[in-house]
Amino acid sequence: MPKSHSPRKRTSKKRRAIVLATAQGKIQFADATARRWLQQFFGRSDSAGLLPRKLCHWLKRQARPADRSSAVGRHQNVRLFLKKEKISTDQITLLLLELIDGKAEERVRRHRGLTRREDEVLSWLKHGKTNPEIAEILGMAAATVSKHLERIYQKLGVENRTAAANLVQQDRQCA
To answer: CB within 8 A of 155, min separation 6: which ones?
Structure first.
């Protein structure tokens, strides 16, 4: 009797999906997971083939360079983040959807938003270095270090260097 091949077991749930939409919110493409999440986290849209109203408004705000935030939908302890990708054009916008379950995954998601240079600055900050010391080590001006730290604080959702260092320390312990 021939051996039957069992299908591979999935080791983890799908955590990411994509949507292509126009600037007006008309969906050009969305995978099945994205469609399910949009409905679950933001409700049905008014018209078939359109993003939910809340996301249409968010997408219009993304046209302004000053507003580059993520849209967030919540359902129990799970959050869905939508981010407009830089490769988007005036006609088509690529939206990445990421499902985050719990606080530990949220911290990891925030760290992925840091640039390589911001990550280096944060690493030296964690080691207790001052702005002038970090500037000397990385070969930049102290004012540049301050600017990197402003962006790091914003991305991590903290207000000062102590909170940022503590958050990094907590993340290392969770990992």
So the answer is: 110, 113, 114, 118
- How far is it, in rounded angstroms, from Cα 52 to Cα 19? 13
Share of the chain above pLDDT 70, in %: 75
What does the alpha-carbon distance between residue 102 and residue 45 come to, in Å, rounded to a whole number?
Answer: 27
- CA 58 to CA 36: how far, in whole Å? 19
* Complete domains list, the chain, with CATH: 16-101 (3.30.450), 108-174 (1.10.10.10)
Nearest Cα to 30, choosing from 117, 103, 93?
93
**Residue 104, CA distances (Å) to 12, 56, 107, 117, 172 in order:** 16, 29, 5, 23, 10
Q: Indicate whether 160 pLDDT > 80.
A: yes
Summarised one tens digit per residue, pLDDT across range 104-134 is: 555 555 556 788 899 899 989 988 899 999 9
Question: Is the pLDDT reported for residue 99 higher than 90?
Answer: no
Name the average pLDDT for the chain.
78
Which two structure tokens, joined as six digits, stand for 81?
Answer: 């983040």
- Tell me which H or E stretch contains 73: strand 71-75
